[in-house]
What we know:
The protein is an alpha+beta fold and 388 residues long. Helix content is 64%, strand content 9%.
Amino acid sequence: MFDTSLYRGSLTLLRTTPIINWTPIQRCMLMLFMACVVHSIWLMWKLIVIFNPNFHQYVNLPFLTTSFYVNVFYICTYFGLAMICLSLVRQKNLHTLLIYICTSTFGLFLLWDAYIVGVMSPATAIVLISVIALGLLLFEAKVIYPILFLAILIIITIAHATLNGKLSYAPIFDFPGMHNSPYTNQFWCLSMLFIGLPVVTICFAMFNIFLHQWRHREASFRSLSLIDPLTKIYNRRNINQQLIEIAHKLEQQKQLCYGIIILDLDHFKRINDEYGHLIGDEVLTEVAATLQSNVRQTDILGRYGGEEFIILAKDADKHIIIQLAKRCQQSIQQLAISTDQQKYINITASFGVTVVCHNHSMRQAIKEADEAMYQAKRLGRNLIVLSD
């Protein structure tokens, strides 16, 4: 019996998961769905021609009627394959076989349509190029290239047989001048547009979706590489990049100075050991949020180590940077983190402060701030020490 939960799951997937993250079997079902849409549109064209006597002079009506039922067979086949893929979505050992069956079936059916409208027609060229490009986007090259190679051989064979008179070219069309100057026939031109436009539109839409999702994913990866995932502030890698840029600015602007604050939470290991790492993570998150609310808009805040934070303050002399450190110290002291044991943890931090200006070494300034922070630890913690 068909598992309706799989159907509901596929709808949820379509709404919530970017296509770029879909599995190959899910993309295969998407391909089959798009094939059903395209062939349904082509069925509409054939119905319009069949029920409009004015168009009968341009087509081989018996052949067109037969091809109509062939298209219906295609849609049923695609739908059946999609249902098989959906029912076997959890059978991962069968996915590779299903993908090859579905893509091969789609390719062979497409070649039949290419033959009946003409393998050298604009519609055929547009459809094949669009489908191949979309196929390479949806599936691995090892899936698409064998089908592409076979399709080229079949198209060459059909073209050769047509030139030798063994096959009729574009058997669905039949009007004077078809083989000499079809481009002057309005019906043929509009038919080419009707056949090719749906495929181009769907492929263009899919390319646009993939491109948008790829850019969004690249932006997310870029953000993850620069932002600490726990505290949502800059990570050490980003801070190091900022330090390089600041050092360059200091070389260019003689009047520019930066204040540097390095602070380390006191007895943080004890918090982790006594209350667990989840409470420890909450402490780090709350401290980061508190520091973020105290720094200026032009300041740079980052997580420099496990429980160590750094602040880079632009245009700051000793008085400004000390005042900033005091605000941060007082705000951290006011934090009260609740625990599962109905207790509240009071947080303190030790601060090391220095100022770096033109012709000063940024690396040396970071070292001095770090040493000042450790001096604050040795002097009793919860202190602010300004480096010499």
